Amino acid sequence: MQNHCGKCSQKSKQENHDDPDEEYAEGTRYPDGSVKLRNPHIELMDQDILYHLALGSGSHDLVEMFRDVKFVCMGGTPRRMEMFAYYIMKEIGYKLPTGTTLMDISQYSYRYSMFKVGPVLSISHGMGTPSIGILLHETIKLMYHSKAKDPIFFRLGTCGGLGVEPGTVVISDDAIDGLGNHSYSVPILGKVVQRPCKFDKKLTRELKALADPEDPYETTLGTTMCADDFYEGQGRCDGAFCDYSEADKLEYLEGLMKSGVKNIEMESVPFAALTNHAGIKAAVICVALLNRLKGDQVCTPKEVLNEYQLRPQILVARYIKKYLQTKGRLSSFEGHGSICVKSPRRFKLVQQESQTFE
What we know:
The chain is of the alpha/beta class. The chain has helices at about 5-15, 60-65, 80-90, 130-145, 200-210, 245-260, 270-275, 300-325, 345-355, and strands spanning about 50, 55, 70-75, 115, 120-125, 150-160, 170-175, 185-190, 190-195, 220-225, 260-265, 280-290. GO terms for molecular function: uridine phosphorylase activity. Pfam families: PNP_UDP_1.
């Protein structure tokens, strides 16, 4: 009789993965490394409509369109993620076929924008917890339907810094909500379910190591506070309502800083919790537009802010390039993110459903 230790069993399960050292939540991977959903109902459905992406498992050939995706990069606005798509295209040497251009794959949803550059998917997630939560559900399902193997998710964003200079890049190594909880609380069927916020520690370290000493700005690790509101939820004194003093605000912010919080934004908690629950490696990289200890409003010139917003993109591009070079996949891409229709009738129905405004 042979004895099999847990490590051997884990290695066997992961032997076909890109990185055999990766660990995944139980039940989130098939033997070939493709994403397995923690929802038995999806496999029983005739088709799964990704309503807010204007895609469907019955209408589109999602395997043909997205099977090669390795990196899913999310950011707030459609414009920012379109610019990132063009930026990463240049960085990895991706060439579009003659006569073609990047297209917004989710243009018919009028909610999110999606651009594909070889193994990189660039998607806008909107603002706040509900918006990014919806997108994460559908993007994780997209990875499942497309049979993408071991995808890595990044959120590229802006934030308010705590005790850091404007332009500082903050890599989140932890995330808390406005009450200091290290979990994402979701009311489900009348009960609050808490899912822990966890980032991949190895990925976080690798990103920090890619910060160049010659960069004209600091890159640091820290806890990120995720607020449910831009004004009072972040202790601002410039909203339509404010029932606290400037001194109260500063006392609160200084307390956060002393506990290790480096920045405040509005998406890190659901991003960390849902990617962790799906067994997906993920990281949040934000640039501070201001030091909240010195004010509430962003008064930096637009051209400077535009340069700031490139900084998280530069760091993630370094990671993607290094990964592809290590795997020998740099510049070896096929396809250009075109729409592959499987069922014209269902394709039309998905478009019509996604275009319906309530």
